[in-house]
Description:
two-stranded antiparallel sheet, 4 strands, 36% helix, elongated, two-stranded antiparallel ribbon, mainly alpha
Amino acid sequence: SSGINAEYGHLANHVINVTELWRGMDRRLTTRILAIHALSGCDTVSLPFSMGKTKLFKIVRDNPELLVHIDVFYDTNVTNEQITAAGTVLVMRMYGNSIYATMEELRLCIYRKKLAGKRAVTLQMLPPSTAALVQHLLRAYMQVQEWMGRSLDPANYGWTFDGEQYTRTVGYECYAPPTLLKLLSCGCKGTTKKACSTMVCGCKKIGMVCTQFCNCTDCENNVEELNNLDESDCESDDEGIENEE
């Protein structure tokens, strides 16, 4: 159809002529709209918190040098590392960065700025960690390839098969060095499995498991293995908890 009925906001009862809209767009963008759509969130790919499609679209439109990174998502002969490198540049620019080399450096910078502004800082306000971003970018790449008619193995592109269905693969990174994690503890006094099952628990509230340093005993938020972590356990980007995108 050449037009759609927009039933919300100031476009209510108006018809948008998609064909005319397409004709008026820069061809450099229309030929890359699938990647922009996937990277900024679609049915199968989530999006970084508070980052919408308009933002990425304008960034790519106003910075032609970024087109080469968008093109990676159309390439059928790229490695996962190349996908990650190209996508990281794009996501960093969504957060206004053209200086820092890693997501961790950017996260720290944004965290410090928000603290300086005396605003309450929640995890979703920060850019995704590298481990989380990698899986996001692989899913975006696979979706673009699917739209282009090329089927890929989901297990290699950000999805995990649990025996019944595919679920998102999550990227694991330690919140902090184990020596610091072991200094954090909750004051819950429960002695049953139900202890620490609500957000009243200080550990559960911030997404951490209870350790031997907490007051609770054998609670459902306890993972014994964490008590034996050493520094080397935090060097891997294996599956685990993914930052909200």
